[in-house]
Design goal:
185 residues; alpha+beta; YojJ-like (1; 23% helix; globular
Amino acid sequence: MALQISYGDHENVVEIVDRVRYCLESISLSFSEWNSPRIKGPGVYIAVIADRQYGEYADIMGKNQWPISQCMSVYHEDAFYDACETVCLECDGGVVIAVDGQIEPTMVRFRDLGTVPSENGSRIKTVNYKPWMGARHMSAIETSVRPEVIATITLSEESGRVSVFRDGEMESRSRQQIATEWRAD
């Protein structure tokens, strides 16, 4: 019998996804220029994966790098926030986080879902796009159905929306909906 871990329900992995989501929500709420014309907000695409061999479905994004010298793990809260804010404003590409919370230095472009066959040879599960989705979000929902991917999380640079994608399903909050249970405004 093979050892199998259900990472999607694993307490530590759920915490990692939550830490990323809360960080992106904080970055979205701290940016005050969302309604200014011609100003791009912070944006990012993060994948939490159970397989460090992601090169089979991702390509390196040039010189874009996560600042490992500043933060190597999602468990370093302040450093993670600072590094994530920098990446959101200055870099392009997907950030890869392993199920142990370690962040990969290389940022990537995840390949189109249509390039991956399922176990029985047919295409992997289709996904439903929403009209508001841009390329980052469409890629994130597609990537979320890959067996190696636990979740993808995005921060929209156009609107501040934070979305979590798991197995082709989406939980998305507009900037106005983020953290409504504890926001003072």
